[in-house]
Write a structure and sequence with these properties.
heterodimer, A: 101 residues, mainly alpha, 4 helices, globular, B: 315 residues, mainly beta, Porin, 14-stranded antiparallel beta sheet, two-stranded antiparallel sheet, 3% helix
């Protein structure tokens, strides 16, 4: 019987090569500010988008799994992979950064 | 943003290391991203979104959707993609890619991204997805390309083979339920009549050894492929809050892969049925166990029943 063990090694190198005004990563700066003074409406919108968008393909991961910076990287990756509109991706980052303490 | 993925596959007697994707993404607009490099094919939902082991609910791909199947795996080129909200609840997303395209090779049509183009004809592929309600996504995909075919002995020129693919998919995710399915249909047409060429000898530029002769390919006639599957998974957290019991997830999948036309390629046809049970240690750590029944259409290949285990960790 043929068996296959797959070890998938995923490495992400977010280099911030994009126009700063358009990337989720840059807007993490705004989100970092939001983390200290979060917009409740944005957080609620992000929570809803987080459950719908992330749960569509895989299990939802706890906000506490990653740091603020790691969430910015991860959500930017997922924005591209899952074709998530940028405004929703920003709301998801805001929610995750406000919830990972 | 740059992202890449390396896959290491261990089989009985060898280890393969393969660059799955390596792409630069330019976030041009809230609704437009431009990707360049080697990227997962936008066709369908399985390859681009579901194939990672910690996401896929079963240890292997549906029949026809993995390596050697009809699902395009990757592409080298450029791609535009994005999503946009329509009204309050509906959403659309899109992906359009132009790349070097598939080739004919030992495995028939090889649908992995090639670093160079063996002809001057680029492939075009894409997918349009629509969310009528947040829990449901339906999508349609296409791919069109031209392949270098066998030599036509009458004209002593290589033939151009048209390769056209279309597909449809859906995914419904609500609470503990995950229900999804996918259909792909592809055809390769334009092969010269069998008496006009030496069967299965392909002169592929990419395999050119300097004398114009390439590798042998297994495809020599007009051929049609169909592959489809439906998959249902249910997380037991919908029934119990027991700390262990809620982590189990039974899953079933049934799919068919049918090839008609080329005799050798037809032997790949099979029906595949999986019944599995997963245990989730964490949202991205899962132990999977499944029984898989493979019913090959060809009498020359013996049907088989396999038991598969897989431990997957996503990071």
């Amino acid at each position: 019987m043929r068996y296959t063990i797959i070890i998938a090694a995923t490495f992400l190198a977010m280099l911030g090569l994009v126009s700063p005004s358009l990337s989720v990563a840059q807007e993490g700066g705004a989100s970092a500010t939001a983390a200290t003074d979060p917009n409740p409406m944005e957080i609620a919108r992000g929570a809803q988008a987080w459950a719908q968008e992330c749960g569509r393909c895989h299990n939802i991961r706890s906000p506490s799994e990653l740091s603020d910076e790691e969430w910015r990287v991860s959500v930017t990756h997922m924005r591209v992979r899952a074709n998530i509109p940028a405004d929703e991706a920003r709301a998801i980052v805001t929610f995750l950064q406000a919830s990972n303490d | 943003m740059f992202e890449g993925e390396v896959e290491i596959t261990q089989t009985d007697n060898e280890t393969n290391v393969e660059l799955e994707n390596a792409q630069v993404n330019l976030l041009l607009h809230d609704n437009v991203t431009l990707a360049a490099g080697k990227f997962y094919s936008p066709v369908g939902q399985f390859q681009e979104r579901l194939h990672p082991a910690w996401i896929n609910r079963l240890p292997d791909a549906p029949a026809g959707f993995g390596h050697g199947g009809i699902q395009p795996l990757s592409e080298v080129g450029v791609m535009a993609r994005g999503g946009a909200r329509v009204g309050n609840d509906m959403r659309v997303n899109y992906s359009v890619a132009v790349g070097n395209g598939p080739r004919l090779g030992h495995g028939g049509v090889e649908l992995e991204g090639f670093a160079s183009d063996d002809n001057s004809n680029k492939s075009v592929a894409g997918r349009l997805g629509f969310f009528p309600i947040p829990e449901l996504e339906v999508g349609g995909s296409f791919m069109t390309a031209e392949l270098i075919g066998p030599e036509d002995h009458e004209t002593e020129t290589l033939t151009d083979i048209d390769f056209d693919l279309w597909g449809a998919d859906f995914a419904y995710v609500r609470g503990p339920w995950r229900f999804r399915g996918e259909y792909l249909n592809a055809e390769a047409t334009g092969f010269p009549a069998e008496e006009d060429h030496e069967e299965a000898i392909i002169f592929a530029a990419a395999e050119d050894e300097g004398d114009g002769h390439g590798e042998e390919a297994s495809l020599a006639e007009n051929t049609e492929w169909q592959a489809w599957y439906v998959e249902l998974a249910y997380r037991m957290s919908g029934l119990t809050d027991h700390p262990i019991g809620q982590n189990f997830e039974p899953v079933v999948r049934y799919g068919e892969y049918e090839v008609t036309g080329d005799h050798e390629a037809e032997e790949q046809s099979e029906d595949r049925f999986n019944v599995g049970l997963n245990y989730w240690f964490a949202p991205s750590i899962v132990l999977k166990a499944t029984v898989e029944w493979r019913d090959f259409v060809s009498d020359e290949i013996e049907d088989e029943t396999r038991i598969l285990f897989q431990l997957a960790y996503g990071f």
